[in-house]
Write a structure and sequence with these properties.
This protein is of the alpha/beta class and 192 residues long. It has six helices and six strands, in the order αβαβαβαβαββα.
Length: 192
C-alpha cells in the first residue's frame, strides 16, 4: 500500500511539474507583452509612420524606374536646421555607396519656400527639386507636419520621419540613423 501511495505521489508531482514547465513560460511571456516589460523588436531609428502616408500621386512616375527617396520640404525661412537637413540628405545619399542609384534626394519647394535655399539646392546639385503648392504639401503631411526628413518607399508611401536639429553635431548623428535605416530598407527591398 505504501509503494502505491508513494508511486501515486511521484506521478502527480511529475504531471504538475510538466504543466508548470510548459505553461509558466507562456503565462510569463503574455504578461511581459501586455505590460511592456521589454523593448519590442523595432530596430528602426526614425519615427515609423502609422498609418503611412500615401504620396504616390506626387512621388511615383511610371516612366521612371522606382526609387527610394529622401525628402525634405524647404521652409519659408531656411535656418541652420534647414541647412543641416539639406546637407544631411545629400550626404546620406552619397554614403549608401554602390546603392546610390536606387535612392533619390527630393527637395520639395512651395511658392513660400526660401528662394536662397532653393537656389542652393539647385546650384550644388544636392538632389531633385519638386515644386508643389503649399496647400498640397500641407494636405499631404497634415498628420505629422512637414518639418522633418522623410524616407519614401518605391511605391510613394512616406514610411519614416526624422526630426531636424539646429546643432551640427546632432545633425551628423541623426544622419547616421537615417543611413542605418535606409541601408536596411535597401537590403530588404528588391524594388528600386
Amino acid at each position: 500500500m505504501q509503494a502505491k501511495n508513494s508511486s501515486s505521489k511521484k506521478t502527480k508531482f511529475t504531471a504538475l511539474a510538466l504543466i508548470v514547465v510548459f505553461i509558466l513560460p507562456v503565462v510569463l511571456a503574455k504578461l511581459a507583452l501586455d505590460n511592456d516589460w521589454f523593448n519590442k523588436g523595432a530596430t528602426n531609428r526614425g519615427q515609423l509612420l502609422d498609418p503611412i502616408i500615401d504620396a504616390s500621386s506626387v512621388f511615383v512616375d511610371t516612366s521612371e524606374e522606382p526609387h527610394w527617396r529622401l525628402s525634405y520640404v524647404i521652409p519659408e525661412s531656411c535656418d541652420v536646421a534647414c541647412e543641416n537637413a539639406v546637407f544631411s540628405i545629400s550626404q546620406v545619399r552619397k554614403a549608401v555607396g554602390r546603392e546610390m542609384d536606387r535612392v533619390d534626394a527630393v527637395f520639395i519647394a512651395t511658392e513660400n519656400s526660401d528662394t536662397k535655399a532653393v537656389a542652393n539646392v539647385v546650384s550644388k546639385e544636392y538632389g531633385k527639386l519638386l515644386n508643389l503648392d503649399s496647400e498640397s504639401v500641407n494636405k499631404l503631411f497634415k498628420q505629422v507636419g512637414n518639418d522633418g526628413i522623410f524616407i519614401i518607399d518605391t511605391l510613394g508611401n512616406v514610411v519614416l520621419r526624422y526630426d531636424i536639429t539646429l546643432e551640427r553635431d546632432q545633425a551628423i548623428m541623426d544622419s547616421r540613423d537615417i543611413l542605418a535605416d535606409l541601408r536596411k530598407l535597401l537590403k530588404l527591398s528588391r524594388i528600386g
